[in-house]
Amino acid sequence: MIAAIVAFCVGVLFCLLLVRPAITVLKRLGWSQYVRADGPQTHLVKKGTPTKGGLVFGLGTVVAYGTAHLVTGEPVTVSALLVLLSMAGMGAVGFVDDYLKTHHQNSGGLPERAKILGQLLVIGALVPVVLWGSERAGRPLLSSHITFVGDVGWLDLARFGPVVAVVLALVWYAFLTVGTTNGVNIADGLDGLLTGCAIASLSAYALILFFQARNSCAGVLTAGCFETVDAHDLAVVTCALLGNLAGYLWWSCYPAQIFMGDTGSLGLGGFLVALAILSRTELLLPVIGVVYVMVASSVLLQRYYFRLTGGKRLFKMAPLHHHFELKGWSETTVTVRFWLISALGAVAAVAVFYATWLLRTGTGTL
């Protein structure tokens, strides 16, 4: 617990103190936001705001996590390393996208297929780390099942043999990762919107991971114990990012002085999906990230409705937060209401997690 507190506090201070000088540096580099002309007209004033702020809280997460381990003397774990690598890898894809936008001063960036290919390459690069980490831990970091609150018995990917299991696992993790990272990315459309939603999501995961650490199967095998490897250290690295985002929100809330860019949003998506996979709560992620599901679904619905109806629109504009802006809601109203939805999703996920655990241990009833 001390490590988590240190990580959180260092993270808050890091962003509170260093985002201001980072804004100056980003402006000098010319890394400023390009605003779409076909978007809400109220966003045109945002043009010129420095972007790639994800570099700050990404670095801050590593610093906060490392400081916590220096203070406590606890060893760095492969599980936490995987989460950080997932964040860095997806953030690197986002950085390339951001660089192309700022360099050419248009909203093009990476083509959609190139962005997805980059995400898939990151997944492939992390596979050897997972295998090495499993050998070092003496037990698999990942489950052969698709997970909810632990393994879902009838969703065993290994039932058709090891070769098919590997193929199915790669397909599943690719789907989960690409869907999550792009959903989180799409949610980054208003000042502070994604930052506040991510704080809610990470808070839920911090609670879940601390509970898993207290009821780990690594100690005494009991009914309802959790197979999550290094759950406590996953909670520590989660608190490191949580603290950074709390400090970062000071600068990114309306009117934002800095944007995280795809560097930050894809990095956050990589972090969250890694937490879901390693904590074995994959099917719980859509509840924790309900806002990401909402905004990503709105884009897909808009796209296919437009094609099927020959040009009609289901929403005034997609993603969903822009639809409400065009309906007359102020930017802060949309942001705060989406924060509330995200917080409700986080609370609901923790409640479902705990209720499921009670049922599995036989201490609760339907």
UniProtKB/TrEMBL annotation:
The chain crosses the membrane at residues 76-96, 116-134, 157-178, 190-211, 231-251, 258-278, 284-306, 338-359. Its cofactor is Mg(2+). It is a multi-pass membrane protein. InterPro entries: Glycosyl_transferase_4 (IPR000715), PNAcMuramoyl-5peptid_Trfase (IPR003524), PNAcMuramoyl-5peptid_Trfase_CS (IPR018480). Its main location: membrane. GO terms for cellular component: plasma membrane. It is an enzyme of class 2 (transferase). PROSITE patterns: MRAY_2 (PS01348). PANTHER family: PHOSPHO-N-ACETYLMURAMOYL-PENTAPEPTIDE-TRANSFERASE, PHOSPHO-N-ACETYLMURAMOYL-PENTAPEPTIDE-TRANSFERASE HOMOLOG. Catalyzes the initial step of the lipid cycle reactions in the biosynthesis of the cell wall peptidoglycan: transfers peptidoglycan precursor phospho-MurNAc-pentapeptide from UDP-MurNAc-pentapeptide onto the lipid carrier undecaprenyl phosphate, yielding undecaprenyl-pyrophosphoryl-MurNAc-pentapeptide, known as lipid I. This is Phospho-N-acetylmuramoyl-pentapeptide-transferase. The lineage of its organism: Bacteria, Bacillati, Actinomycetota, Actinomycetes, Propionibacteriales. The gene is mraY.
